[in-house]
Amino acid sequence: MNGGNLKKHRVLKDDNSLKWLNLPPEIWLVIISKNLNNTFDVIRFRSVCSVWRSLIPPRFLSSSCTHLIPDGKFLLFIQTKIYWLESSCLSNKGYIIKVEESKSGKFRHLDVLTNTHISHKHPFNVIDLMNLRVKELCQSYTINYSKDGGDFTKFKPLDEVYKVVLFHEEGLGQMVFALYKDRKLHVSNIDYNNFMIVDDGSRVYDDIILHMGKIYVVDNSGIIFWIDCSSFKLVQYSPSLNSDGLKKKNLVTSKRSLFVVELYLKRTKGNICKLYIDVNLLRVGENSSEWICVRDLGDALFVLGKDSNFSLIAEDYHGFERSCIYFDCKGKTSCYNLKTSRLKIVDGIFGSCPTLFKCGNKN
């Protein structure tokens, strides 16, 4: 690169800042600003100086969209993201945070398992990204609705929807797969404004997931199907678990394999404070013709959330244990150890990174 005609911007007096500012424009415009993958990256880039802020605009709900369905409701698909945060001044282990970005660009801190809004004691706290490394782990969507499709603030959560997957396939456009609480699977093509129920019969589903570029669902008997998006036909992927339907089945993808977590919770008759729990973890075999019972996840762990399930490596995070399954149990964050078959309450494990916020003020 020819630096003979490049201007040297002296916006900030800090020596470290000057080193950044003196980079050739080809680097910060083409290589850096064009490869910012998430909102936190954009915020950090724009915070360096006014010159860098002028290169790219703030990102406001770029992944959200509205959609009119046949019953006259306008649906708003809002993206939430789970991030890994590592504090450079604490240790090399990370924390998990789940955020939803409002139309104004402000973040709402959500509980990883339940999606409930987490309020903070100091209302003027602001996010401090200066000493944090940030990496996006996964994303999910929630559906809000409005009768007139007007102001963003008028949209309310669509409670009858259990889980949503947005999926784009070349030539078919953007599709929305929504698993309702009646356990029926609805699909809509946003580009063509059509709407249908997949396999409109007696079959009901427990979970849906995007895995290796395909949409998978599991029914209440434990059969996994993948969906042919060109015809919306179900293609059987696994044998049945011969389940009686009482155990909730959760799909998790980890290390290119597809797992099912069977979960059954019930209060005992003799003592309402005592909880009976039955957890089974199974993996589909390589030839998709058998189920393999899993007793040990090695260094991995599973998290079962309201709108997304995912896998983590335990040693990369504060407070997490290997070969465990984390989920919400009667409003409590619970940890089930596969090796010991024991359940314990671990409230606070999804708390914020201690250095995430710095105290701001009204002015």
From TrEMBL:
Lineage top rank: taxon: Eukaryota
InterPro entries: F-box-like_dom_sf (IPR036047), KIB1-4_b-propeller (IPR005174), SCF_F-box_domain (IPR051304)
Occurrences of domain KIB1-4 beta-propeller (ranges): 86-327
Pfam families listed in its UniProt record: Beta-prop_KIB1-4 (PF03478)
PANTHER family, per database record: F-BOX DOMAIN-CONTAINING PROTEIN, F-BOX PROTEIN SKIP23
The protein's name: KIB1-4 beta-propeller domain-containing protein
